């Protein structure tokens, strides 16, 4: 069965975007980019909310024109081969966007889901394929969490306090116990945390 894996950069005080949706606070880390690029081989699809889909569509189709490096969307002027590898994967992967307002999409391999339907998401997980990634998309992560559909949460905790912003989860009615799978720190001060829902019974903790 396919898994749903969420991936989000968050601040040390718990926000995944600034008050106006800005992400310019993210702290770059080359080793983290390499790890992310390598891990994407285990996934072949993405699930989005409309806002995050449009942000990705506005950047990634044109970002990989260079055959070797690609701009980092979080660090003006910075380019790397690892970001290029991530960009190639994003453009090739299947893209599912949950939206009642989008009527058509032109980005390749994209499809609209007109409403969030837990049963439809369950069906997607039962179909052949690799993991389904969720980037950003706080409203979708909230609904997936509410229905117990997230298999793994990946957080990149950035060494910064915003003071205000948008929390990743909002309005989830019940708490969800998690098992720590990995904790890894980087020279930049970023910390990667991977968690599985405790209902899955996985307690494979490693720290580097």
Task: Kindly describe this structure.
- The chain is globular, with a radius of gyration of 16 Å.
- The protein has a nine-stranded mixed sheet.
- Residues 200-208 have low confidence and may be disordered.
- It has one domain: Dihydrofolate Reductase, subunit A, CATH 3.40.430.
- The two termini are 29 Å apart.
- 26% of the residues lie in helices and 30% in strands.
- Helix 1 (30-39) runs parallel beside helix 3.
- It is built from five helices and 13 strands.
- A hairpin with a 7-residue loop joins strand 4 (70-71) and strand 5.
- It is of the alpha/beta class and 208 residues long.
Q: What topology emerges from the helices and strands here?
A:
Elements lengths: L3 E8 L3 E3 L12 H10 L3 E7 H14 L6 E2 L7 E2 H12 L1 E5 L11 E4 L4 H9 L4 E5 L2 H9 L5 E7 L7 E2 L10 E8 L5 E7 L8 E2 L1
Parallel strand pairs: 1-8, 1-9, 3-6, 3-8, 6-7, 11-13
Antiparallel strand pairs: 2-10, 4-5, 9-12, 11-12
Helix pairs in contact: 1-3
How would you summarize this macromolecular structure in one to three sentences?
The chain has helices spanning 30-39, 50-63, 81-92, 118-126, 138-146; strands at 4-11, 15-17, 43-49, 70-71, 79-80, 94-98, 110-113, 131-135, 152-158, 166-167, 178-185, 191-197, 206-207. It is of the alpha/beta class and 208 residues long. It has a single domain (4-180), classed as Dihydrofolate Reductase, subunit A (3-Layer(aba) Sandwich), CATH 3.40.430.
